[in-house]
Amino acid sequence: MATATQDAVLGGAVDLARAAALDLAEHPEDVGEHLGYTVEADRLVSHRFACTAKGYRGWVWTVTLSRVPRARKATVCEAVLLPGDDAVLAPAWVPWEERLRPGDIGAGDVLPFRADDPRLEPGFTPTGDPEVDEVAIGELALARNRVLSPVGIAEAAERWYRGRQGPATAGSVASAEPCMTCGFLVPLQGPLGTVFGVCVNEWSPDDGKVVALEHGCGAHSETDVEPRPSEWPDVPVTRDLVLEPTSGTGEAGAAEAGATAQGAVDAEVDAAGDDVTGATPDAGAGEAPASQPEP
Description:
By secondary structure, the chain is of the alpha+beta class. Helices cover about 25% and strands about 20% of the residues. It contains seven helices and nine strands, in the order ααββββαβαβααβββα. Strand 1 (about 30-40) and strand 2 (about 45-50) form a beta hairpin.
């Protein structure tokens, strides 16, 4: 494959390339210094100019020039703004169906079809036996193309059990009895029915919601039952706080330390034979005598 040769006419057409970049830029000051050019092919050269526009660090204005054989005049093929090696780029585009999160679907929105959804598996296929098909389709409602797979059942159970209708909520812990003993619970069918049911009590905050059998609330059908014993040990609680001063803490400690020091001083004085116990100093003790007038 032949290598493209340098083209003096196209390589020197910097002013023509800059004019094309200025036409493309929003502001003239957005086109910076000339960064050189690249020979793309015979009589085809791309000039590069630094982009100084805000938010486009590392981007480059690229203007491609060409000329016809034996011509001494260059013409502009295209002018574009391209990212450089250290350009600031937008995050990689993520398809809409991968950006969705629970709660994003609104009225009129339709989720994209997933043929390989791991939460689903092929449903019941009619066998041709009237008895088997009647039970499967009429009673078990299996006439669906796909049904929940073990993965889908496990994910749903984990999400519900750890959610607001699970056994660890504040209302559930404070309730006297769990939902499994409530008359307003309608159990679910299938594997999920071993752990969950639907609350149908209009006075309950969970009315119409799937709740764990170990969940509970204050709208239980049997509200006259005794509170459930707690698994936590009984800890005595002191209602009236009584403070007892100790040595070395606060003003009481300082007073006690002072009294102790004074007692030590008195003991030393008594040992020296100077009995001052009960002595009361004169009112004027420690005061300087009044000055006498000069004669």
